[in-house]
Structures are given as C-alpha cells and as structure tokens.
Amino acid sequence: MQVRKTIDCRQFPNNPQGCSVTITGREDEVLKAAVRHGRTVHGYPDKPETRAELASAMRPEGPLSAQPGRKVADCRSIPSEINCSLTFSGPEEEVVKVVTEHAVEDHHEPYSPELVKMIRDGLVDETRFQESAPAPGP
Ligand SMILES: [Zn+2]
Ligand SMILES: [Zn+2]
Fold it and tell me: 31 pLDDT exceeds 80?
C-alpha cells in the first residue's frame, strides 16, 4: 500500500493568514491540492520551486492530533470517478474553502451553493474522525 503523505500549513513560517489547513492523501493528490491552495490562499506562484518546496515539506501520515473545533472532510467517503483519497482538516471555513476548490477543479463538480452546503454538511469533527478511523495495527 502506498504511504499516505500529509502537509500542514502550520509548518510553514511564512503564513501570515494563520492558516492551519492539513491535506493528507497520495503524494500526487496532496501536491496538486497543496499547489492550488498555496496559490489561492497564500499567493504562492505555481512554479517548479514552489512544487519542490511543497514536495519536500510532506511527511508520512501520522496519527491525527485531533483538536476540538477542527473539522475533517474525507473524499474517501464520497463516490468519485477519480478515486480520490484526500482528506482535509482544519477550521470549518478553511476546510470548506479548500474542499470546494478541490471538488470543482479535480472532481469536476459544477460550482453551486448546493455543492458548498453538501461539503459543509459532510464535515465531521476532527476528534470524532480519529475515533472512527481504523485502529492501528500491532
Ligand atoms: Zn493554508
Ligand atoms: Zn477529492
């Protein structure tokens, strides 16, 4: 099984927005979503240097340090033709924004208020998400 990677905006020093979005999934999926999020939220240009920096900032997925008030969106819980396995976590508004962009650009969902509502309704608390995740092996 491919190792899942994670990238967390909190690990970047140049983050004046105080963004705390975390993106987890297969490396290619994470890079794609992170490049887009970096461009739209943080103003990073989409160029090879940015991609290299993001790629080197990825870590193997570890246990989620769940915090009350943070939400998780899990693409694995929705039917998708692109077999997407990304999960996003963070404060509700940050997650809704990054997931909406991802759904429109990568899942080719037409943008609509209903889409945004569906994403918002599908969020689970980070603390609950951890409990429902499969128990780690021995
Ligand atoms: Zn961010
Ligand atoms: Zn997805």
Answer: yes
